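Box 3.1 A note on notation
Throughout this textbook, protein chains are presented in two layers. The first layer is the amino acid sequence; the second is a token string describing backbone geometry. Keep the layers aligned when reading.
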Amino acid sequence: MTTPPSSDPASPPTPPATQPPPGLRGAALLRDPRYNRGGAFSEAERDAYGLRGLLHSRVSTLETQAARIMRNVRMKPNPLEQYIFLAELQDRNQTLFYRVLVDHVAELMPVVYTPTVGTACRHFMHIYTRPRGLYICAGDRGRVAELLRNWPVAEVGVIVVTDGERILGLGDLGANGMGIPIGKLALYTACGGVHPDRCLPVMLDVGTDNPEIRDDPLYIGQARPRLRGEAYDALVDEFVAAANAVFPGVLIQFEDFATDNAFRLLARHQDRVCTFNDDIQGTAAVALAGLISAGRITGAALTEQKLLFLGAGSAATGIAELIVSAMVRQGLPEAEARRRCYFVDSQGLVTADRADLAPHKRPFAHDLPPAADLQAAVEALRPTALLGLSAQAGLFTEGVIRAMADANARPIVFALSNPTSKAECTAEQAYGWSDGRAVFASGSPFDPVTLADGRRFVPGQGNNAYIFPGLGLGVLASGARRVTDAMFHAAATCLAGEVSAEDLAAGSLYPPLGAIRGVSAVIAEAVAAVAWDDGLSDQPRPADIGAWVRAAMYEPRYVDLVGG
């Protein structure tokens, strides 16, 4: 790690120690993933740490180990087997795991996160081998801080927490949802350079209302109906307070909570501690970035868009709220900005005369006649952009896509539901049914599409991993006390700015995944600048924020332990 010039009033955060603690040696050292490096221990290190004879004789390099890992990954018969293999690597050799993930992020992100993590969560209780993270149960009320102190690392900077009730588009998976915080935090490190020792996955194991999971004898969680009401809120409140007491200033990312809980908990805590909800705000930022990029293709400014959302949960309304605030920042009155956002939920078009609307839907309920279905809504409203967050596959039918194409020379179609099996349409359908005119993005990856006339499109994935690792890095590097909408605006603008003309010409609204670590650094710089500009940090502002951020990024490599 480098340091800023001596004229700077401060220095970047000190990285966690790479030296094994006193007494950790021999076989015990080989079982500790934070310090183990397997056959890459040098001759001198083998003598110093009592490893002689416990390892094969030839000393390996990190590069050789990584090549062996990738060879094995590519030999696995399916993505779930790849996921299991990489999880075992993470539990065995942390540095090697992240070296492989950083160097092959475009190939491995779909394995360690969407879409494969959805399959892994569904089978988590069946593939479980070794504990990772913390599990906090309803019966732990009154001692949550004690549980957090059981974590072996004192300098935790980021917690990703879920209660497993709304895992991707798969619903209530209970404690099986622990795969989500684990996967998210792997991307914090691989994409954002946040040191893995500063990352803590947490499962609020409060039961599940999914009887198929609850009654499985291999289920790893509380086999009881979900905790609800005041008792649930009290447990979450205690967790948030305890996390900030044990790990002062920690960034807490809420992940995959049910819609009502997601909005309520965000409103309850966002002005008191450093926290955000990735489903509401992270998804919103990546969608906003996609719309900004799409405008470069269609020629329409953000304030000229008319948006129709399929689905009105936390992700969809979170996107709309951020887009409204972005339009307001660009000069549009708030009432007009809201009139540019329309929703179709399970009961049809969200209109002002409906009495069944949840509070988060009411700001987008307009005086409109009802629409029989999604296609009728498209034909009546003629939106410029259609965004799917319904978690129901196939709802963007040929009729819907053709109606969008009839209304627009370049219809914007975002099928954002995860995993791939829940996408509202495929990339091939969007391009094919629009005669190649759709400006398409998806939540899960799709392969390039070649139409009959030879035109080739490379669809972009609107993955939250473009946002949250860089945002988290910026928050940690600046010591920000809060996470604000201004930070998400900055992150979305930066992400869109990283999309090249060549990317747009190929049909992609996002940069290549292989560039995501550099993109995260740019986003972190912008987020940190917002923290200092808005008075959200007590740390001295460095002269060069970009250099400061990059100096704080973790690089997975082996460090000489004995100096010989």
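The chain has a mean pLDDT of 94. The first strand starts at residue 134 and ends at 137.
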